[in-house]
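Schema walk-through. Below, the input block comes first and the output block second. Nothing else is stored per chain. Lengths vary across the set, and this one has 416 residues.
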Amino acid sequence: MYRRLNVFISRINEEQAMSQYRTFTAQDAVDYAKQFGGLDNPSSLVEAQEIGDGNLNLVFKIFDAQGVSRIIVKQALPYVRCVGESWPLTLDRARLEAQTLVAHYQHSPQHTVNIIHYDPALAVMVMEDLSSHQIWRGELIKNHFYPQAARQLGEYLAHTLFHTSDFYLHPHEKKAQVAKFINPEMCEITEDLFFNDPYQIHERNNYPAELENDVAALRDDAQLKIAVASLKHRFFSQAEALLHGDIHSGSIFVADESLKAIDAEFGFYGPVGFDVGTAIGNLLLNFCGLPGHLGIRDAAAAREQRLTDIQVLWTTFAERFQALATEKTRDSALATPGYASAFLKKVWNDAIGFCGTELIRRSVGLSHVADIDTIQDEAMRHACLRHAIHLGRALIVIADRIDSAEELVARVRQYS
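--- output ---
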Protein backbone atom coordinates (compact mmCIF):
# COMPACT_ATOMS: atom_id res chain seq x y z
CA MET A 1 0.00 0.00 0.00
CA TYR A 2 2.86 2.36 0.88
CA ARG A 3 4.45 1.85 -2.52
CA ARG A 4 1.10 2.38 -4.31
CA LEU A 5 0.55 5.62 -2.36
CA ASN A 6 3.96 6.94 -3.38
CA VAL A 7 3.28 6.03 -7.00
CA PHE A 8 -0.08 7.84 -6.82
CA ILE A 9 1.52 10.99 -5.36
CA SER A 10 4.30 10.81 -7.95
CA ARG A 11 1.76 10.65 -10.76
CA ILE A 12 -0.15 13.65 -9.43
CA ASN A 13 3.08 15.65 -9.27
CA GLU A 14 4.03 14.47 -12.73
CA GLU A 15 0.68 15.49 -14.22
CA GLN A 16 1.19 18.97 -12.78
CA ALA A 17 4.71 19.12 -14.20
CA MET A 18 3.56 17.86 -17.61
CA SER A 19 1.34 20.92 -18.01
CA GLN A 20 4.56 22.96 -18.40
CA TYR A 21 6.62 20.34 -20.23
CA ARG A 22 7.77 20.77 -23.79
CA THR A 23 10.41 18.91 -25.77
CA PHE A 24 13.50 21.04 -26.26
CA THR A 25 14.88 22.08 -29.61
CA ALA A 26 18.58 22.87 -29.99
CA GLN A 27 17.81 26.58 -29.64
CA ASP A 28 15.80 25.92 -26.48
CA ALA A 29 18.84 24.16 -25.04
CA VAL A 30 21.09 27.13 -25.86
CA ASP A 31 18.68 29.60 -24.27
CA TYR A 32 18.32 27.41 -21.19
CA ALA A 33 22.09 27.02 -20.80
CA LYS A 34 22.52 30.79 -21.02
CA GLN A 35 20.05 31.24 -18.17
CA PHE A 36 21.02 28.39 -15.86
CA GLY A 37 24.55 27.30 -16.84
CA GLY A 38 26.30 29.46 -14.27
CA LEU A 39 28.86 30.72 -16.78
CA ASP A 40 30.58 34.08 -16.31
CA ASN A 41 29.76 35.05 -19.89
CA PRO A 42 26.53 33.23 -20.86
CA SER A 43 26.09 35.29 -24.04
CA SER A 44 29.10 33.43 -25.47
CA LEU A 45 26.90 30.34 -25.92
CA VAL A 46 25.64 30.23 -29.49
CA GLU A 47 24.95 26.67 -30.67
CA ALA A 48 23.76 23.24 -29.51
CA GLN A 49 24.37 19.78 -30.91
CA GLU A 50 22.15 16.84 -29.91
CA ILE A 51 24.47 13.97 -28.98
CA GLY A 52 22.20 11.55 -27.14
CA ASP A 53 22.70 7.96 -28.25
CA GLY A 54 20.55 6.37 -25.55
CA ASN A 55 16.88 5.47 -25.48
CA LEU A 56 15.54 7.75 -22.78
CA ASN A 57 16.74 11.34 -23.19
CA LEU A 58 17.75 14.30 -25.32
CA VAL A 59 21.33 15.38 -24.61
CA PHE A 60 22.72 18.65 -26.00
CA LYS A 61 26.29 19.92 -26.05
CA ILE A 62 26.30 23.71 -25.88
CA PHE A 63 29.11 25.47 -27.77
CA ASP A 64 30.51 28.97 -27.57
CA ALA A 65 31.39 31.20 -30.55
CA GLN A 66 34.84 29.60 -30.79
CA GLY A 67 33.27 26.15 -31.20
CA VAL A 68 34.28 25.00 -27.71
CA SER A 69 31.79 22.79 -25.86
CA ARG A 70 31.08 24.46 -22.52
CA ILE A 71 28.13 22.75 -20.88
CA ILE A 72 25.58 19.92 -21.22
CA VAL A 73 21.77 20.18 -21.18
CA LYS A 74 19.88 16.91 -20.71
CA GLN A 75 16.12 16.48 -20.95
CA ALA A 76 14.12 13.36 -20.16
CA LEU A 77 11.66 12.22 -22.81
CA PRO A 78 8.23 10.87 -21.84
CA TYR A 79 8.79 7.65 -23.83
CA VAL A 80 11.48 5.17 -24.91
CA ARG A 81 13.10 6.57 -28.06
CA CYS A 82 13.82 3.24 -29.75
CA VAL A 83 10.19 2.13 -29.30
CA GLY A 84 8.26 5.40 -29.48
CA GLU A 85 5.27 6.80 -27.66
CA SER A 86 3.76 3.32 -27.29
CA TRP A 87 6.23 2.82 -24.38
CA PRO A 88 5.66 5.83 -22.10
CA LEU A 89 8.08 6.70 -19.31
CA THR A 90 7.78 8.77 -16.17
CA LEU A 91 9.39 12.21 -16.32
CA ASP A 92 9.97 11.98 -12.57
CA ARG A 93 13.04 9.92 -13.42
CA ALA A 94 14.79 13.22 -14.24
CA ARG A 95 14.29 14.32 -10.64
CA LEU A 96 15.54 10.98 -9.38
CA GLU A 97 18.57 11.12 -11.66
CA ALA A 98 19.47 14.66 -10.64
CA GLN A 99 19.04 13.93 -6.93
CA THR A 100 20.97 10.65 -7.17
CA LEU A 101 23.89 12.36 -8.89
CA VAL A 102 23.79 15.25 -6.40
CA ALA A 103 23.89 12.76 -3.51
CA HIS A 104 26.71 10.78 -5.11
CA TYR A 105 28.63 13.98 -5.87
CA GLN A 106 28.40 14.88 -2.18
CA HIS A 107 30.23 11.67 -1.28
CA SER A 108 32.44 11.18 -4.36
CA PRO A 109 32.85 14.52 -6.17
CA GLN A 110 35.96 13.46 -8.03
CA HIS A 111 34.08 10.57 -9.68
CA THR A 112 30.56 11.97 -10.24
CA VAL A 113 29.38 14.46 -12.85
CA ASN A 114 28.47 17.84 -11.33
CA ILE A 115 24.78 18.82 -11.68
CA ILE A 116 24.59 22.60 -11.94
CA HIS A 117 20.81 23.06 -12.21
CA TYR A 118 17.65 20.97 -12.35
CA ASP A 119 14.10 21.89 -13.39
CA PRO A 120 11.40 19.31 -12.50
CA ALA A 121 8.69 20.93 -14.65
CA LEU A 122 10.74 20.60 -17.83
CA ALA A 123 12.59 17.44 -16.71
CA VAL A 124 15.83 19.22 -17.62
CA MET A 125 19.20 19.30 -15.94
CA VAL A 126 22.32 21.31 -16.70
CA MET A 127 25.62 19.59 -15.96
CA GLU A 128 29.33 19.98 -16.38
CA ASP A 129 30.78 19.29 -19.80
CA LEU A 130 33.01 16.22 -19.97
CA SER A 131 34.44 16.78 -23.45
CA SER A 132 37.92 16.26 -22.03
CA HIS A 133 36.86 12.68 -21.24
CA GLN A 134 35.89 9.67 -23.36
CA ILE A 135 33.11 7.13 -22.87
CA TRP A 136 34.80 4.15 -21.25
CA ARG A 137 32.96 1.55 -23.34
CA GLY A 138 34.34 2.95 -26.57
CA GLU A 139 37.84 3.07 -25.13
CA LEU A 140 37.61 -0.53 -23.94
CA ILE A 141 36.48 -1.67 -27.38
CA LYS A 142 39.43 0.15 -28.98
CA ASN A 143 41.74 -1.41 -26.36
CA HIS A 144 42.75 1.99 -25.00
CA PHE A 145 43.85 1.29 -21.44
CA TYR A 146 43.25 3.71 -18.55
CA PRO A 147 45.36 2.32 -15.69
CA GLN A 148 43.45 4.07 -12.89
CA ALA A 149 39.88 3.49 -14.11
CA ALA A 150 39.10 0.21 -12.32
CA ARG A 151 40.48 1.52 -9.03
CA GLN A 152 38.58 4.79 -9.40
CA LEU A 153 35.34 2.94 -10.12
CA GLY A 154 35.88 0.86 -6.98
CA GLU A 155 36.40 4.08 -5.00
CA TYR A 156 33.23 5.62 -6.45
CA LEU A 157 31.15 2.57 -5.55
CA ALA A 158 32.60 2.30 -2.05
CA HIS A 159 32.01 5.95 -1.14
CA THR A 160 28.56 6.35 -2.66
CA LEU A 161 27.20 3.05 -1.39
CA PHE A 162 28.68 3.25 2.10
CA HIS A 163 27.60 6.82 2.79
CA THR A 164 24.00 6.15 1.71
CA SER A 165 23.68 2.93 3.74
CA ASP A 166 22.64 2.02 7.29
CA PHE A 167 26.31 1.88 8.21
CA TYR A 168 26.51 5.66 7.93
CA LEU A 169 23.02 7.20 7.97
CA HIS A 170 20.84 7.60 11.05
CA PRO A 171 17.89 5.18 10.77
CA HIS A 172 15.40 8.05 10.48
CA GLU A 173 17.37 9.68 7.69
CA LYS A 174 17.89 6.37 5.90
CA LYS A 175 14.15 5.62 5.91
CA ALA A 176 13.37 9.11 4.64
CA GLN A 177 15.92 8.66 1.86
CA VAL A 178 14.43 5.31 0.84
CA ALA A 179 11.03 7.01 0.47
CA LYS A 180 12.51 9.96 -1.43
CA PHE A 181 14.18 7.72 -3.98
CA ILE A 182 11.34 5.29 -4.67
CA ASN A 183 11.55 4.76 -8.43
CA PRO A 184 8.91 2.14 -9.32
CA GLU A 185 8.57 2.73 -13.06
CA MET A 186 12.29 2.65 -13.79
CA CYS A 187 12.80 -0.29 -11.43
CA GLU A 188 10.08 -2.13 -13.32
CA ILE A 189 12.14 -1.75 -16.50
CA THR A 190 15.12 -3.28 -14.72
CA GLU A 191 12.98 -6.04 -13.25
CA ASP A 192 11.66 -6.96 -16.70
CA LEU A 193 14.89 -6.65 -18.67
CA PHE A 194 17.15 -8.34 -16.09
CA PHE A 195 14.96 -10.97 -14.49
CA ASN A 196 11.92 -11.67 -16.70
CA ASP A 197 12.30 -11.19 -20.45
CA PRO A 198 15.39 -13.32 -21.21
CA TYR A 199 13.87 -16.35 -19.49
CA GLN A 200 10.61 -16.38 -21.44
CA ILE A 201 9.39 -15.78 -24.97
CA HIS A 202 8.93 -12.02 -25.18
CA GLU A 203 8.62 -9.52 -28.02
CA ARG A 204 11.31 -7.29 -26.47
CA ASN A 205 13.95 -9.99 -26.70
CA ASN A 206 16.51 -9.42 -29.42
CA TYR A 207 18.97 -12.10 -30.54
CA PRO A 208 20.04 -13.84 -33.75
CA ALA A 209 17.99 -16.84 -34.86
CA GLU A 210 21.22 -18.86 -34.80
CA LEU A 211 21.20 -18.60 -30.98
CA GLU A 212 17.64 -19.91 -30.54
CA ASN A 213 18.78 -23.20 -29.00
CA ASP A 214 21.00 -21.37 -26.50
CA VAL A 215 18.18 -19.01 -25.51
CA ALA A 216 15.60 -21.80 -25.34
CA ALA A 217 17.92 -23.60 -22.91
CA LEU A 218 17.66 -20.59 -20.55
CA ARG A 219 13.87 -20.84 -20.63
CA ASP A 220 14.02 -24.56 -19.83
CA ASP A 221 16.62 -24.37 -17.05
CA ALA A 222 14.74 -24.73 -13.75
CA GLN A 223 17.86 -24.35 -11.60
CA LEU A 224 18.79 -21.12 -13.37
CA LYS A 225 15.30 -19.66 -13.13
CA ILE A 226 15.13 -20.32 -9.38
CA ALA A 227 18.46 -18.52 -8.94
CA VAL A 228 17.23 -15.60 -11.06
CA ALA A 229 14.03 -15.44 -9.02
CA SER A 230 16.14 -15.16 -5.86
CA LEU A 231 18.13 -12.31 -7.40
CA LYS A 232 14.94 -10.53 -8.42
CA HIS A 233 13.59 -10.92 -4.89
CA ARG A 234 16.74 -9.33 -3.51
CA PHE A 235 16.41 -6.50 -6.02
CA PHE A 236 12.81 -6.02 -4.85
CA SER A 237 13.39 -6.15 -1.13
CA GLN A 238 16.88 -5.10 -0.04
CA ALA A 239 17.04 -1.30 0.28
CA GLU A 240 20.68 -1.25 1.35
CA ALA A 241 22.06 1.89 -0.33
CA LEU A 242 21.36 4.52 -2.98
CA LEU A 243 22.36 2.76 -6.18
CA HIS A 244 23.34 4.35 -9.46
CA GLY A 245 21.15 1.60 -10.89
CA ASP A 246 22.80 1.35 -14.33
CA ILE A 247 26.52 1.68 -13.78
CA HIS A 248 27.81 0.22 -17.05
CA SER A 249 30.84 1.30 -19.07
CA GLY A 250 28.64 3.49 -21.27
CA SER A 251 27.63 5.49 -18.19
CA ILE A 252 31.23 6.23 -17.27
CA PHE A 253 33.55 8.86 -18.72
CA VAL A 254 37.33 8.44 -18.42
CA ALA A 255 40.43 10.51 -18.99
CA ASP A 256 44.00 10.18 -17.80
CA GLU A 257 43.73 10.03 -13.99
CA SER A 258 39.98 10.78 -14.07
CA LEU A 259 36.68 8.86 -14.02
CA LYS A 260 33.15 10.33 -13.84
CA ALA A 261 29.82 8.52 -13.51
CA ILE A 262 26.78 9.93 -15.36
CA ASP A 263 23.22 8.79 -16.28
CA ALA A 264 21.64 7.75 -12.98
CA GLU A 265 17.93 7.79 -13.91
CA PHE A 266 17.62 4.24 -12.56
CA GLY A 267 18.82 5.40 -9.14
CA PHE A 268 16.98 3.91 -6.13
CA TYR A 269 17.65 2.21 -2.81
CA GLY A 270 18.53 -1.40 -3.54
CA PRO A 271 21.09 -4.16 -2.90
CA VAL A 272 24.70 -2.98 -2.92
CA GLY A 273 25.72 -5.99 -4.99
CA PHE A 274 23.60 -4.84 -7.91
CA ASP A 275 25.80 -1.85 -8.74
CA VAL A 276 28.96 -3.84 -8.15
CA GLY A 277 27.71 -6.75 -10.26
CA THR A 278 26.57 -4.52 -13.12
CA ALA A 279 30.02 -2.90 -13.25
CA ILE A 280 31.79 -6.27 -13.27
CA GLY A 281 29.33 -7.62 -15.84
CA ASN A 282 30.19 -4.90 -18.32
CA LEU A 283 33.89 -5.60 -18.01
CA LEU A 284 33.09 -9.25 -18.72
CA LEU A 285 30.96 -8.28 -21.74
CA ASN A 286 34.04 -6.51 -23.08
CA PHE A 287 36.08 -9.62 -22.27
CA CYS A 288 33.63 -11.71 -24.31
CA GLY A 289 33.66 -9.30 -27.25
CA LEU A 290 37.36 -8.56 -27.58
CA PRO A 291 38.21 -11.51 -29.88
CA GLY A 292 35.70 -10.13 -32.37
CA HIS A 293 37.46 -6.76 -32.46
CA LEU A 294 41.12 -7.73 -32.08
CA GLY A 295 41.26 -11.33 -33.28
CA ILE A 296 41.59 -14.32 -30.97
CA ARG A 297 45.39 -14.18 -30.59
CA ASP A 298 45.73 -10.41 -30.28
CA ALA A 299 42.84 -10.25 -27.80
CA ALA A 300 44.60 -12.45 -25.25
CA ALA A 301 46.53 -9.68 -23.48
CA ALA A 302 43.54 -7.32 -23.46
CA ARG A 303 41.34 -10.04 -21.97
CA GLU A 304 43.88 -10.64 -19.22
CA GLN A 305 43.77 -6.91 -18.51
CA ARG A 306 39.97 -7.04 -18.15
CA LEU A 307 40.30 -9.83 -15.62
CA THR A 308 42.88 -7.78 -13.73
CA ASP A 309 40.53 -4.77 -13.88
CA ILE A 310 37.78 -6.85 -12.26
CA GLN A 311 40.08 -7.91 -9.44
CA VAL A 312 41.26 -4.31 -8.89
CA LEU A 313 37.68 -3.01 -8.94
CA TRP A 314 36.46 -5.48 -6.32
CA THR A 315 39.56 -5.28 -4.11
CA THR A 316 39.44 -1.47 -4.10
CA PHE A 317 35.72 -1.43 -3.37
CA ALA A 318 35.93 -4.00 -0.57
CA GLU A 319 39.01 -2.52 1.10
CA ARG A 320 37.67 1.03 0.96
CA PHE A 321 34.19 0.03 2.14
CA GLN A 322 35.78 -1.91 5.02
CA ALA A 323 37.95 1.08 5.96
CA LEU A 324 34.96 3.44 5.88
CA ALA A 325 32.97 0.99 7.99
CA THR A 326 35.76 0.80 10.57
CA GLU A 327 36.12 4.57 10.68
CA LYS A 328 32.57 5.87 10.27
CA THR A 329 29.92 3.26 11.15
CA ARG A 330 27.40 4.96 13.45
CA ASP A 331 25.21 2.02 14.44
CA SER A 332 26.64 0.10 17.40
CA ALA A 333 25.44 -3.30 16.17
CA LEU A 334 26.74 -2.79 12.63
CA ALA A 335 30.06 -1.64 14.13
CA THR A 336 30.55 -5.08 15.74
CA PRO A 337 34.00 -6.37 14.70
CA GLY A 338 33.66 -8.77 11.80
CA TYR A 339 30.19 -7.67 10.67
CA ALA A 340 31.35 -5.42 7.81
CA SER A 341 33.42 -8.32 6.45
CA ALA A 342 30.41 -10.62 6.65
CA PHE A 343 28.29 -8.02 4.86
CA LEU A 344 30.88 -7.69 2.09
CA LYS A 345 30.85 -11.47 1.59
CA LYS A 346 27.10 -11.25 1.00
CA VAL A 347 27.63 -8.29 -1.36
CA TRP A 348 30.19 -10.31 -3.31
CA ASN A 349 27.86 -13.29 -3.78
CA ASP A 350 25.03 -10.96 -4.82
CA ALA A 351 27.36 -9.18 -7.25
CA ILE A 352 28.33 -12.40 -9.03
CA GLY A 353 24.68 -13.31 -9.54
CA PHE A 354 23.70 -9.84 -10.76
CA CYS A 355 26.77 -9.85 -13.01
CA GLY A 356 25.44 -13.01 -14.65
CA THR A 357 22.04 -11.43 -15.29
CA GLU A 358 23.76 -8.44 -16.91
CA LEU A 359 25.64 -10.75 -19.27
CA ILE A 360 22.46 -12.54 -20.30
CA ARG A 361 20.17 -9.55 -20.63
CA ARG A 362 22.73 -7.72 -22.81
CA SER A 363 22.95 -10.75 -25.09
CA VAL A 364 19.31 -11.86 -25.28
CA GLY A 365 17.19 -8.89 -24.25
CA LEU A 366 16.23 -5.51 -25.65
CA SER A 367 19.38 -3.51 -24.92
CA HIS A 368 22.71 -4.81 -26.21
CA VAL A 369 26.25 -3.40 -25.94
CA ALA A 370 28.61 -2.19 -28.63
CA ASP A 371 31.35 -4.45 -27.23
CA ILE A 372 29.62 -7.30 -29.07
CA ASP A 373 27.05 -5.74 -31.40
CA THR A 374 29.66 -3.81 -33.44
CA ILE A 375 31.68 -6.95 -34.28
CA GLN A 376 31.68 -7.06 -38.09
CA ASP A 377 32.14 -10.79 -38.63
CA GLU A 378 28.74 -12.37 -38.08
CA ALA A 379 29.99 -15.79 -37.03
CA MET A 380 32.39 -14.23 -34.54
CA ARG A 381 29.65 -11.94 -33.21
CA HIS A 382 27.39 -14.92 -32.63
CA ALA A 383 30.23 -16.79 -30.91
CA CYS A 384 30.82 -13.86 -28.56
CA LEU A 385 27.11 -13.61 -27.76
CA ARG A 386 26.99 -17.33 -27.07
CA HIS A 387 30.01 -17.01 -24.79
CA ALA A 388 28.32 -14.22 -22.80
CA ILE A 389 25.11 -16.23 -22.43
CA HIS A 390 26.83 -19.37 -21.19
CA LEU A 391 29.18 -17.46 -18.88
CA GLY A 392 26.25 -15.51 -17.46
CA ARG A 393 24.28 -18.68 -16.81
CA ALA A 394 27.23 -20.31 -15.04
CA LEU A 395 27.88 -17.30 -12.79
CA ILE A 396 24.24 -17.07 -11.73
CA VAL A 397 24.04 -20.75 -10.81
CA ILE A 398 27.36 -21.02 -8.94
CA ALA A 399 27.51 -17.51 -7.43
CA ASP A 400 27.51 -18.81 -3.86
CA ARG A 401 30.49 -21.07 -4.65
CA ILE A 402 32.72 -18.25 -5.91
CA ASP A 403 34.47 -16.95 -2.80
CA SER A 404 36.93 -14.39 -4.18
CA ALA A 405 37.88 -12.30 -7.17
CA GLU A 406 40.65 -14.80 -7.91
CA GLU A 407 38.10 -17.62 -7.95
CA LEU A 408 35.89 -15.56 -10.28
CA VAL A 409 38.81 -15.12 -12.69
CA ALA A 410 39.46 -18.87 -12.58
CA ARG A 411 35.81 -19.58 -13.36
CA VAL A 412 35.79 -17.11 -16.26
CA ARG A 413 38.82 -18.85 -17.72
CA GLN A 414 37.08 -22.20 -17.24
CA TYR A 415 34.09 -21.06 -19.30
CA SER A 416 36.14 -19.32 -22.04
